[in-house]
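Reopening this one. Same input as before:
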Amino acid sequence: MVVIDAGPGALSYLWQDNSTEQTFTVFQPGNYWVSVTNGCGSTTDTLQLSAGANEVFDLGPDEVLCGNAEIELNAGNDGISWLWSTGATSQTVVVDEPGTYWVDVADERGCYVSDSVTVSADSQAPVLTCPADTVGYVAVGGSMLFLALGQASVSDACPYALTNDFNNTDDARGRLAMVTWPRMRMG
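Same output, byte for byte:
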């Protein structure tokens, strides 16, 4: 949208659409003219408006909140003003709740671009992948058997800690690999 102003002080204004106000609001590219009459006569002027290049703006991929963490969303520094769905007017905003957040960014020409990003809570437990069981036998009077246990792995969108309670003891019964992750704040 562009507002064309023919200037103050004229006796009358006539735009290409037969409107008679001092200003004319344009919503699309094209040729626009105004005829202005004052005490000395009238003059007509034509203005051609063309569309600028479409700006590409991207807040990035959707985000996952881990536990009680916060996420900083950054609209980049290619603007002169920002308006977030939170009401913030800075280049960045810190969020700690799930939701969809949008931002409008204005440049020095007064052109706006917008984007949104969805922030979700990690509600899935990490996936623990354990190696196959290993079975070993020691004969009576035989030597000690050391088993090389495979490394367990974990996959999750959030940080986690993997602890193993197999402390090279001779009895590992009842001892389990444990995965811990940040406690979730729900609602």
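So the earlier flakiness isn't reproducible anymore. For the record, Confidence is low (pLDDT under 50) at residues 143-147, 166-187.
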